[in-house]
Structures are given as C-alpha cells and as structure tokens.
Amino acid sequence: MVALAAIGTLFVMPALLKVLGHRVNGGRPPWVKPGHTGARASLWGRPARTVMRRPALTALPVLAVLLLAASPLLGITFGTPDERVLPEGAESRQVAAALRENFNGSDDAALHVVIDQPLNKAPSSEGGPAPAPAPGSTAEPPYAEHSTRV
To answer: How far is the C-alpha of 119 from the C-alpha of 143, rounded, in Å?
Structure first.
C-alpha cells in the first residue's frame, strides 16, 4: 500500500498536474455551492492573516508553549535496559548480577571461537568426539561456536 502511494506521488501526480496546467484550481467540488466561501474560511482565515502580518509576534508564544511542553525532557537519559529492570527476586537478575560482580570483562572483549568441522567430529569437553546425530537424520550437523570473555 505504501509503495502504491509512493508511485502515485512520484509519477501520477506530476503527470496529472502537467496535463491540467493552469486549470488545476479551475473546478470546484460538487457539494460546494457557487459563491459560498464556507465557515472554514472564516475559521482559519483570521488566524492565517494574523500570522502572515506579524510572524515574529505569533512565533514567540508558540515557541514558548513548545519549550514548556518539552521541558520534562531536559533531564532525559537513554540507555539499554539490562537485568536491573527485573524484580530483585528474579532468578535471572541474581545470576546476571553475580556474573557482573564476580567475572571481569564485557561483551566488547568477548572472543568468538568457531570450530570448522561438524559437531560430531569436534572434540567434546571430556576429550572424546561429540555424540553423533540421531539415527535416520539427514541434516548436516551444525558447526560448533563458542564464546568466551578474555
């Protein structure tokens, strides 16, 4: 739907405006009676004339209102939430806190190790080969990837 609107805006509207030329504002909607300016013109006409006559005088109060509305954002700080947003009793928060306090390092200092052979041929932590995939499995075994902090 967005692509259709973009295509119409970029290609159809300019072509239509070129074809209409100076007659672009020549027609009127069928529900508007001839000679009737409507209440909308008087509703927006007076403020528009005021803004056009004295733009600085109009801009200052508007700017003051916008700054007042934005004032709660003066002390805003952005960050990535971590385990501290969880309740104190959450097990995942306790584990993450213990890891942060007892182990030095960060994700920036992580060392990624990739073993370039299938898991069933890669040595396991016990020293022997890793267990073979399930019988009847046609899928290639995944490659092992381990991360550690230095």
So the answer is: 6
Residue ranges making up the domain that contains 118: 105-124+145-149
- Within-domain flag for 33: no
Measure the CA–CA gap between 142 and 118, rounded to whole angstroms.
Answer: 6
Is 32 a domain residue?
Answer: no
- Give me the residues paired with residue 147 across strands: 112
Residues 53-71: tens digit of each pLDDT: 999 999 999 999 999 999 9
Confirm if 83 and 93 have CB atoms less than 8 A apart: yes
Q: So what's the pLDDT on residue 15?
A: 93
Domains held by the chain: number: 1
Q: What whole-number distance in Å separates Cα of residue 58 and Cα of residue 41?
A: 20
